[in-house]
Each structure stands twice: as C-alpha cells, then as structure tokens.
Amino acid sequence: MKFTDDQIADIGEEIINQLKTVYDPEIPVDIYELGLVYDVQISEDGDVKIIMTLTTPNCPVAETLPQEVKDKVAEVEHVNSVDLELTFEPSWNKDMMSEEAKFELGML
C-alpha cells in the first residue's frame, strides 16, 4: 500500500510524538526539543529513515539511545521499517535546541 502525502504527514507527526518521549539522560529534555534529530524521511511504503546525533560522541547512551529511538518509532502505526543513521556532522551545539528546551534549562 502506498501512502498519500497527508498520510505520510500524519505518520511523521506520530513519529515526532514518539521522539518526544525519548530523553537524553544528562539533560532533562527530550531528544527532539534538544535538536538531536536532524531529519526524518518517510517513504510511500512506510519506510522511515532517521538521521540523528548525540550531544557528544562519547555520550554514555551511544549504544542504547539509537536502539530506543528505533524501537519507539517502530511502534508507530503504518511504519514498515526504521533505518537510523547516527552522524556527528554537523556536531550538536546548544543553538540547535528549541526555545522550549532553552527555557526549560534556564537559558532564556
């Protein structure tokens, strides 16, 4: 089954909701608001590709966080497969955080 643009947008919204339930253990803000998710691509077939980073390459959850993200996204209805690419280009910095995240951390 091929999804329409509207259906893909809905799936994308659900994926973002799931990403907002995954937290960086060192910062009490979810990975989406932190700006760790660089891109979410969804094909007409429901195949999802996520390009994300970690706050540092030596992040203590470098092993577990990507798997948690994959598992959460795989739970979204109509998601066929999840491919997660971890990148450190560009490297993450505080400017990538949402206003909400900066506010929560007392940076505004």
TrEMBL record:
Taxonomic superkingdom: Bacteria
Pfam families xrefs: FeS_assembly_P
Transmembrane segments: none
Record-annotated MIP18 family-like domain positions: 13-83
This protein's name: FeS assembly SUF system protein
Species of provenance: Chryseobacterium populi
